[in-house]
Amino acid sequence: MRKMTSNEIRETWLNFWKSKGHMIEPSASLIPNNDPTLLWINAGVAALKKYFDGSEVPSNRRISNIQKCLRTNDIDNVGMTARHHTFFEMLGNFSIGDYFRNEAVSWGFELLTSKEYFDIPVEKLYFTVHPNDEETKKLWISLGVPSSHIVPVEGNFWEIGEGPCGPDTEIFFDRGEKYDAENIGVRLISDDIENDRYIEIWNIVFSQFNSKPGLDRKDYPELPNKNIDTGGGLERFACIMQEAETNFQTDLFMPMINATEKLAKVKYSYESHMAYHVISDHIRTCTFALSDGAMFSNEGRGYVLRRILRRAVRYGKKIGIEGSFLYNLVDVVVDTMKDFYPYLLERKENVKKFIKLEEEKFEKTLDSGESMLNSIISNGNKLLSGKDAFKLYDTYGFPFELTKEICLENNIEIDEEEFKKEMNAQKERARESRKKENSMHSQSFDLLSFNENSEFSYDTSDIKTKVIGLFKDGNIVDSINDEGYIVLEKTNFYAESGGEVGDSGTLEFKDGIVNVEDTIKAPNKQHLHYVVTNGITINVNDELTTHINVQRRTNISRNHSAVHILQKVLQETLGDHIKQAGSYVDEYRLRFDFTHFEKIDNKVLEDIENKVNEIINKGLPSTIKLMNKEEAIKTGAMALFNEKYGDVVRVVNFDNYSIEFCGGCHVTNTSNIGCFVILSEESISSGVRRIEATTSFNAYKELKAKEDILNSVSNSVGSTINEVVNKTNSLINELDQAKEALKKIEDDLIDNKVNELINTNNSNECIKIVEVFENANKNLSLKLVDKLKSLNKDYFVYIINKSNDKLALFAACSSSLVNKGIHCGKIIQETSKLANGNGGGSPFMAQAGGRDISKVNDILNYIKENVK
């Protein structure tokens, strides 16, 4: 068996499949592209989902990749076991309706055992098959696998929800009896016993059936296109090929572990390994996720990322690392992975900045968690509920072990059973979410099989063409007379793509006109026109003339071109860390999401708007042409990181000011945009901002609406538009002066009332004030206490303030009375109960609310009887 580095394993894998006619698909971003069902790319096949569910047909039906993946369903096991990770790489080969079982099995065997490739001894390999899959079993045996090394397992059937499914065969590497102290042997595989002897390195799925709810598995229909879907863990391959004890002792993790050891007070050992493994895994995850465009936040993938980082920080503390440290490990991750992922280099500094900011924020969050726990303890509770413990863990990232430790010091028990229930409920929610994430749609055979050529032109002029395909509910039909999808031999209707909406308009047939309400893309890239026929019957081969809504297309083009200019202006104004994180363009407005870590100041936002309008006013001509992708990159053209491009790309160039890969509709000159107005700027998640804007006549309408508001304000304050600011400032100053005068009057009234209360209730021994007010100033009670303190006498104050059918209760007393047994907090607790309220406080001062206003006399009687 060859000893190989992780880079050599990657290279061997891809070279082998390339030799078998596979297209090498670059790893997709960890952030799914146009797939709202997925939080992260969590499997090698996830980025190819569009091919497997039939929504798109690949240019080559044989594909191989090494896909970055992120999973957190077993995050608590990361560090505890030898092979659990949050970030990992899946080695995959796929057939989308091309080769099937024979080739997948024989090529797999060749890759694993050939001296030219991995050179793994056959006697070290074990293979599981589904008990009914005799065909796969015979194939392995025909290739030289001993029958004793083939293990039937009932669970070898890949099925997640409705859609493609089928039997699978798993491949295990036997690490020997050293890892099987009880000599259980192959039963470790057949009985699915957790072990370190037989390591699953690869799984081949024969996706041949279509899972349908309500059907027995034996009745599942065959797929129109049978597929192969495989996945092998790079980290597991590295562990085997490098003869490491666990995945963490490979060249994928040891550089991070060694760097962490230099920062820690506790050395890497068997006792401390969990902390080191957690940190090395989680910093890889954070580095890749942030590099791929994710940001820390309180929801969605940002929340997942935040939890991962905080877990790493906590384990850093366990080995004596104080303060921010993870950001220093980013350099090590990048250096370790840069050969296969060179894009990490250009994003490194921003990633370090984001991680450092998040570490510093977590330090403050930990303080908040401690404050919450201390508050619970100070209330005298002897039991911490499981829900509170879970809130500390889940909201504040507060370690449960630390919560237990602090509670033990304060003789407080924790409801651990309730805590476990909350944890299990969270895991169940995650499992349900994963089920939804991993389900695939059923294939539409008719759409997948429809290969008729359809030509698209960006020209807005009418086109004479004919119908070449009609579809209803995904099925091909000969005619439609209500609604459905039409494919045309030639069309100039743009199909929704790249954040730009599809065209609308009409199709003119000899029998009348039908409305095109939307245009989308079919799996084989033809444009599907969604039509409402208005009672007209449409048949295949019918001739027609297209009429796109030219005004709508023009407005969409203006907004789309404005997005390109806006992105360039943002980069010039805010920095080159600005990257597109999403966009949407229709005929009314544009929306642009971008990476940026702070709110944009209003003055800066105004400068951005001005700069965009300057570029528009310059009248920069646009040049749009198809280019070789490598040539286009050399021109400095911007490309979306998450987007997959072919060898030939369409480049939109505004006089070398803005150059981007783009397949959308654009103006011929920036002056055609007319005017640009920013409508809003906001945060949509941590580190991602959104600008909404509009152009042309819609921009004029926005400005006109603002002018109308200004006119209304100027009329209200009795001024002209030109003088409205000065007039408004003058009125604000007058209002401030009036407020100040009113406050002085209120203060004088309070002072007079305080003096009156003290003089009326002053005795030689003590000042005792018990009063009922209606809608009294809230500062009265506090001013009264301040004045009483200055007199150096014993005092007791109890005030009831009636307001809006509610009671506000307040009690205070001197320290000398506290020493004699008076406790304001307890008095307030008892009296608030009388009024169906609650509250409390210290022995010296307390307050509460009451909901039953009829209980005032009961409260006064209580004070009379209990405070002598």
* Residues in β-strands, percent: 15-25%
Given helix and strand content, the structural type is alpha+beta
Number of helices: 24
Helix content: 25-40%
- Give a quick account of the main beta sheet: strands, pairing sense, barrel closure: 9 strands, mixed
Radius of gyration, whole Å: 35 Å
> Low-confidence stretches at least 5 residues in length (pLDDT < 50)?
433-442
Q: How many angstroms does the end-to-end distance come to?
A: 93 Å
Number of strands: 34
**General shape:** globular
- Overall pLDDT score: 90
Describe the structure.
This protein is of the alpha+beta class and 868 residues long. It is built from 24 helices and 34 strands. The strands form 8 sheets. Strands 1, 2, 3, 4, 5, 6, 7, 8 and 9 form a 9-stranded mixed β-sheet that branches. The longest helix is centred in the last third of the chain and has 38 residues, at 724-761. The N and C termini lie far apart (93 Å). Residues 433-442 have low confidence and may be disordered.
Task: Reconstruct the topology from this structure.
Layout: H1 6-19, E1 23-25, H2 49-52, E2 62-70, E3 87-96, H3 101-113, E4 125-129, H4 134-142, E5 150-152, E6 157-158, E7 163-174, H5 187-190, E8 198-211, E9 222-233, H6 234-241, H7 254-263, H8 273-291, H9 300-318, H10 326-337, H11 343-378, E10 383-384, H12 386-394, H13 400-409, E11 413-414, H14 416-438, H15 445-449, E12 455-456, E13 463-472, E14 475-476, E15 479-480, E16 483-488, E17 490-491, E18 505-509, E19 512-521, E20 527-532, E21 538-539, E22 543-548, H16 550-574, E23 580-585, E24 590-595, H17 602-618, E25 622-628, H18 629-634, E26 648-654, E27 658-661, E28 676-685, E29 688-695, H19 696-717, H20 724-761, E30 767-774, H21 779-790, E31 795-803, E32 806-813, H22 815-819, H23 824-834, E33 838-841, E34 845-850, H24 856-866
Parallel strand pairs: 1-2, 4-5, 10-11, 12-17, 30-31
Antiparallel strand pairs: 2-3, 3-9, 4-7, 6-7, 7-8, 8-9, 13-14, 13-16, 13-22, 15-21, 16-20, 18-19, 18-22, 19-20, 23-24, 24-29, 25-26, 26-27, 28-29, 31-32, 32-34, 33-34
Helix pairs in contact: 7-8, 7-10, 8-9, 8-10, 8-11, 9-11, 10-11, 12-14, 16-17, 19-20, 20-21, 23-24
